[in-house]
Amino acid sequence: MTARSPEGIAPVQRTGIGNRLLAALPPADLGLLTPYFQKVSFEPDAVLVRSGDELDPVYFPHSGAIAFMLDMPDGQTVATTLMGREGALASFSVLGPSHSSVTAVARVGGTASLISAARFRAAAAQSAAIRNVVQVHARAVLLQLQHVAACNALHRVDGRMARWLLQLHDRVLDDLLPVTQEALAQLLGVRRTTVTLTMNKLREVGAVPSDRRGFVEIDRTRLEKAACDCYALMQSTIDRMYCQELPAPQPAHAPFRESAIVTSDGAGGESRAVSRAGK
Q1: Where does residue 10 fall: left (phi above 0), alpha (psi -120 to 50 degrees), or beta otherwise?
Q2: How far apart are CA 269 and CA 118, in angstroms?
Q3: 275 pLDDT exceeds 60?
């Protein structure tokens, strides 16, 4: 497997807590949350939050990748950000009850710690450390939004696709990415035929050795050369922010009540959570 930078996202997997924000909390502050956590797993294409839904509950991913999709009036969708174990879905609910302006879709299945927005707000009210990690995360999301907006306006599709694949690779930690061309079309906001043509270009330069059956194999070194400058600039800025403004990850494990699986039912993509015994 290709080596990763020691900064930002990567250190999380060397601790007992997979989520970077939770791993940065001192034990006493983490203890305000853990009694109310539920461990969930989410499948690819599961809709975790739909545009217009109330931001409740809050998800702290430990693995996987979640895309924030903006729904346009003409029915098209385009990704604005990608989140993994460095973030928290619906963490902005700490400011008070609110509704989502985007649809959050699992592009890569994974696991998360789930807590109700009300419980999360109550814990944050008691903890400056929790409020700090939310603030750092909010700044990282805003920075990503700014870079993606500029990238979509200024750069070619092949460079943008390479950037999205690198962002997925950061969160999957495997050179074989479980992503379909349809999912890439939604991330990029382009037609499926454009994805096919762009994939051929990346294959010609060796950045994508193979693309078949819902998996994309990448050569990270060559993919980085094919990507636009946005990836390196955005990632280095976010890495530096996390490393400078968040404490070193704590090694303790977070207990969970039970586990559940979040699935998508049918063509409409409706999501449901199915409880099962936790470990």
Answers
A1: alpha
A2: 27
A3: no
Q: Are 117 and 97 in contact (CB under 8 A)?
A: yes
Helix 157-172 × helix 128-154 angle, to 10° = 150
**Rg, Å, the chain Cα set:** 18
Q: How far is CA 5 from the centre of its chain?
A: 18
The mean pLDDT value for 172-192 works out to 89
User: What is the DSSP code string of 135-162?
Assistant: HHHHHHHHHHHHHHHHHHHHS-HHHHHH
Vertex 46 angle, CA 44 and 47, to 5°: 145
**Long-range contacts at 261-266 (CB < 8 A, ≥ 24 apart):** 261/40, 261/41, 261/42, 261/43, 262/40, 262/41, 262/42, 262/43, 262/46, 262/48, 262/106, 263/43, 263/46, 264/43, 264/45, 264/46, 264/47
Of the two residues 76 and 179, the one the predictor is more confident about is 179
Residue 38's H or E segment, with its range, is strand 38-42
User: What share of the chain has pLDDT > 70, as a percent?
Assistant: 83
221 φψ region: left (φ > 0), alpha (ψ -120 to 50), beta (else): alpha
Please give, one letter per residue, the 3-state secondary structure of 69-98.
Answer: EEECCCCCEEEEEEECCCCCECHHHHHCCC
And the tokens for 46?
A: 């599961």
Tokens of 201: 């270009």
pTM for this one?
Answer: 0.82
| Cα atoms in the 13 Å half-sphere on the side-chain side of 14 | 9
* Helix/strand/coil for 56: coil
Question: What would the two tokens of residue 168 be?
Answer: 């997925």
Find residue 49's DSSP bridge partners. Answer: 104
